[in-house]
Amino acid sequence: MKRVGIRDVAQRAGVSISTVSNALNRPHMVSERLVERVRSAADQLGYVPLQAAQQLRAGRSGLLGMTVINIANPFFADMVAGAEDAASRAGLRVLVGNSSDDVAKERDHLELFERVQVEGALVSPFGPLEPWLERLRGRGIPVVLVDAVDDTGELPSVSFDDVAGGRLAAEHLISTGRRRLAFVGAREEVRQVRERLQGARLAAAAHPDVTVEPIWTRRTTSDLGRAFGEQLAARSPADRPDGLITSNDHLAIGVVHGLISQGVRVPDDVAVVGYDDIEFAAIAGVPLTSVRQPAREMGRTAAEILLARIAGTAGAELGNVVYQPELVVRASTAGHALRAATHG
Amino acid sequence: MKRVGIRDVAQRAGVSISTVSNALNRPHMVSERLVERVRSAADQLGYVPLQAAQQLRAGRSGLLGMTVINIANPFFADMVAGAEDAASRAGLRVLVGNSSDDVAKERDHLELFERVQVEGALVSPFGPLEPWLERLRGRGIPVVLVDAVDDTGELPSVSFDDVAGGRLAAEHLISTGRRRLAFVGAREEVRQVRERLQGARLAAAAHPDVTVEPIWTRRTTSDLGRAFGEQLAARSPADRPDGLITSNDHLAIGVVHGLISQGVRVPDDVAVVGYDDIEFAAIAGVPLTSVRQPAREMGRTAAEILLARIAGTAGAELGNVVYQPELVVRASTAGHALRAATHG
DNA sequence: CTTCGATTTCGAACCGCTTCGATTGAAGAG
DNA sequence: CTCTTCAATCGAAGCGGTTCGAAATCGAAG
Description:
The structure is a homodimer.
Chain A: H1 6-13, H2 17-25, H3 32-45, H4 51-58, E1 63-68, H5 74-89, E2 93-98, H6 103-115, E3 120-123, H7 130-138, E4 143-146, E5 157-160, H8 162-175, E6 180-186, H9 191-205, E7 211-217, H10 222-234, E8 243-246, H11 249-261, E9 271-275, E10 289-292, H12 295-311, E11 320-323, E12 326-328, H13 337-343
Parallel strand pairs in A: 1-2, 1-3, 3-4, 4-5, 5-11, 6-7, 6-8, 8-9, 9-10
Antiparallel strand pairs in A: 10-12
The structure holds a DNA duplex.
């Protein structure tokens, strides 16, 4: 019932505590005979060293911290998986904090990271975090931003070119003949969203007859998307956008469903572009054209930069990595899909 | 750059280390004046106690461990959220280990739980884990199974009546006129899957003219589902099942897509029932009839039982909670939906 | 002005492990 | 046979907190 400690192993093997530690962690310092004996004693007792004690002594935790906005979103789930890959290769574990779109939770996680003394943090920020990040830095905990860039340029980051993503989506719609575009997203405050809109406007600027109407929803669930789609269907055709850029696939799939349920045809009446290219985009009722972000690679790269920072080597030159978007064209915009694809 | 420790706070406040500790953790033992002084010193320095040191001394970590089969599946994501709710109410954090359908990873997490000395574990088992669970028990770490039951009856559990789920799905199909049912799932070894099949067979047994054909896929992704749907479409109509029960919604949505893409009508030619009622079930191309499991409640309840076990109180009577299924009828089986719903 | 008890503060041990310097013993050199 | 050298093993310090019992302080009662 009691925990098996290093003492128990030492006693069983008939050696001192320090010899057990050496045999297990630095076998070259101990005679083969004893290494063997200690190992078997440890196995028999099922000894597992207590991480807290190791950490206390070593001053390091073997942990990376990572916060993500919403783990239920496959984009972030993949990002985490990528980071875990890179970390485990370096023998570190990743402590994942899921903010669930909640600023308080996000800060909570950052504090936890400090308490457990993570060796570095990957942060995909949701709310404004400058003071917290500054503090981590003050504590000597390196931080790498993921899917975000630092305005002050102090923090390295791995991000995605959202302006290009928005532009790519808009250009695709324009090239398939759409003229009255709308951009549907939640929260103008979120940088990613702002930039995509900006990209869309940039693309529109090249065509005097193209307009971009921004529309804000409260959140980006498929339910809200559906409600919005129905609402949109109620507008008169002349007043209705004929091309939609949405801020993620959940929202987009909902919108498409809402439109169709009210008899609006997709893509004939309204073309829709999503964002993230999640698993369901390909098999939605109307397969969804979507902007693909290389989530897994982003997570992996971010972790690698962080690890380099931690090691103190080669940190500087890996400052800010920006990934480029890729448009996956499917039926929801299929009008002149092939022609568009070669354009983009 | 250096960590702020309790010593730094003590020095700044001009008191001893132990007084700082007392002022922070047991303020009633210290004069108000000093509590104030210590607090402000701690704030100014940004002192955060090191969790490893606290844990080492206290012998407890303030952590619950939880393993899930696949966090990307909303069913498990919700389960985790429920458990976190209950745990945080008790002041504990949840360390989540995502197995990603990988037995080795799952065991890894269990070992981590031992190393960090979690106070209890919620385990949603994927592979065979008896020896590991036995070991945790031997270490005095209480375990509660989630979405599983212990054959030996030693471990408390919160599960879902999968036999009833399978039966409910099959009865619904039968009552809408289907006769050649098929059950599509991955891995017969997984208990949940076996039981759902068993439930389906039970329902079929009441109707001499109804058959249930089990079909095994390698995994349950929508991609495989789609491939399988296309394959099914290639069968001659007479040879093809007219009612499908799938082991989750991802698979089901893929199958529906595959069928339709080959000109097979859903639900007219083949009706499909999914499992989990995920967000996309409602807005799939053909909205999906699905068996709903109360994931969040299950997670919450499991955590509550675990907490009771940890506290040593009231553990026994909360042995095995079994949740009942609910069928959400949508278009993918809509034939005689209303009549069926009143039946079931 | 003592004395005593209550209250507040402090010193030191301890949690489990790693690591450094010291000790032991055996082997080789003189 | 003694002295040195080196490898193998051990003892003890210390990581950063918490907590227990001792010490100090203070006020009130004698």
